[in-house]
């Protein structure tokens, strides 16, 4: 996550001493260092604001959630997992890389990227908004700058 210029933050409705013990246990038993801070939200206020307490799941525990928050402080993606299902780190990293690529390049990211069944690791170029843009896009395709299924569905390498 650091290589992607991303900070991690944990949040739990447990007390600080529970967090300390959990971090110690993970290091001692699994040899894994927890490199991010964990917020003790003992009142559940933050968890409530972020929709992490789901009716019927538990009154005393939060669902497992991942929030992708951009540098401007806007929540860009939310993944919820039931209490009994672990998170998929590969998917979280894929989501983060896809978001960063989309924002940096001004493109759309296809399903299952970077192993999309049709275009592999290529990205989708947003469709033109007018006839002139469509003509320009067709010219870009002729020049090899983009590949298109049609003028409105083009993709390129990044």
Percentage of β-strand residues: 15-25%
CATH topology of the largest domain: Glutaredoxin
Q: From the 3D coordinates, which CATH architecture of the largest domain would you assign?
A: 3-Layer(aba) Sandwich
Figure out the total of helices.
4
Rg from Cα: 21 Å
Assembly state here?
single chain
Task: Sum up the overall morphology in one term.
Answer: elongated
CATH superfamily of the largest domain: Glutaredoxin
Q: Give the neighbour order of strands across the main sheet.
A: 5-7-6
Structural class by secondary-structure content: alpha+beta
How many β-strands, per DSSP?
7
Detail the poorly predicted runs: none
Distance between the termini: 21 Å
SSE succession: EHEHEEHEHEE
Could you give a short account of the major beta sheet?
Answer: 3 strands, antiparallel
Nearest-integer average pLDDT: 92
Helix content: 25-40%
**Number of discrete domains:** 2
| CATH class type of the largest domain | Alpha Beta
Give a written overview of the molecule.
The protein is of the alpha+beta class. The protein has two domains: about 1-85, Glutaredoxin (3-Layer(aba) Sandwich), CATH 3.40.30.10; about 105-158, Antioxidant, Horf6, Chain A, domain2 (Antioxidant, Horf6, Chain A, domain 2). The protein is about 30% helix and about 20% strand. The protein has four helices and seven strands; from the N terminus they run βαβαββαβαββ. Helix 1 links the parallel strand 1 (about 10) and strand 2 (about 40). The longest helix is centred in the middle third of the chain and has 17 residues, at about 90-105. The two termini are about 20 Å apart. The model has no long low-confidence stretch (mean pLDDT about 90).
């Amino acid at each position: 996550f650091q290589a992607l210029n991303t900070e991690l933050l944990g949040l739990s409705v447990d007390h600080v001493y529970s967090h300390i013990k959990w971090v110690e246990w993970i290091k001692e038993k699994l040899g894994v260092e927890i490199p991010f801070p964990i917020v003790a939200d003992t009142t559940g206020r933050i968890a409530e604001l972020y929709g992490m307490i789901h009716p019927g799941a538990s009154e005393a525990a939060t669902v497992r959630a991942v929030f992708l928050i951009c540098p401007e402080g806007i929540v860009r993606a939310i993944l919820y997992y039931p209490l009994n299902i672990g998170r998929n780190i590969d998917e979280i990293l894929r989501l983060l890389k896809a978001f960063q690529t989309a924002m940096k390049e001004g493109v759309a990211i296809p399903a299952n990227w970077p192993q999309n069944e049709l275009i592999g690791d290529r990205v989708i170029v947003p469709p033109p908004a007018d006839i002139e843009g469509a003509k320009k896009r067709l010219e870009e395709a002729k020049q090899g700058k983009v590949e298109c299924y049609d003028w409105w569905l083009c993709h390129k390498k990044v």
